[in-house]
User: Fold this.
Amino acid sequence: MDRLIDGYREFRRARWPEERAHYAELSKGQSPEFLVIACSDSRVDPATIFSARPGELFVIRNVAAIVPPYEPEDATHHGTSAALAFAVLQLPLRGILVMGHAQCGGIAAALDNRIAQNVPFLSAWIELLEPARQRLTVGEDHAARHTEMERDSVRLSLERLMTFPFVAERVNAGALTLYGARFGIADGQLEVMGEDGTFTIVE
Assistant:
C-alpha cells in the first residue's frame, strides 16, 4: 500500500494542479467516445498506450480481453456483458476496440490447460477461447501458435460483440464501429486489424 500512497501523493503534487479543472468538469458526468476491451495484464494499460486523459476511454479489462457470447439475463453474473451494455446504451460511444497483446497469459492457458488447473474460475473463462484454438493453422511452433491465437482471439471477440443485439443494431446503423488490435509488450508496437482480418503495424 505504501507504493500506492506514494503514487497518489505524486499525482496530487505534479498532476492534480494541472488537471483540477478537467476533473471538475468530469465530476458532472462522463462522455467517452471509445470503449476499449483489454486484458487485465498489468503491462498493457490502455490509457498509457493511447496517451488518454481521464474521461477519454471507457475500459473493460479481463483475462485475455475476452468478449463472452451474448446470453439472456439470468441468475448468473455477467460482469463483462454488464459493462458492455452500460457503455453502449448509456455513453456516446463511436467505437469499440478489442485489444489483445503479446505474451498473454490467458492465451497461454488456452494452449496449455495445465496452467489454469489450480486457479479457481479460470478454466471456465478460458474455455471461451476454444473456437480460436480450434482455428489454429500453424503446426508445432509454440511462438507462432501463441501469436496466431492472440490475433484470432481478437477476431473471436469482435464476432461475439455482434451477438449482442444493442451492439449489432448500432453497428448496422452506422452509429458504432468495431476495431481490433494487438499490442507488443517487448517492442511497443501496435498492430491494427483491417477489414480483411489481417493485422498491420501502425507506423
Q: What stands out?
A: The mean pLDDT is 95. Residues 2-26 form the longest helix (25 residues). Residues 22 and 54 are 8 Å apart (CA to CA).
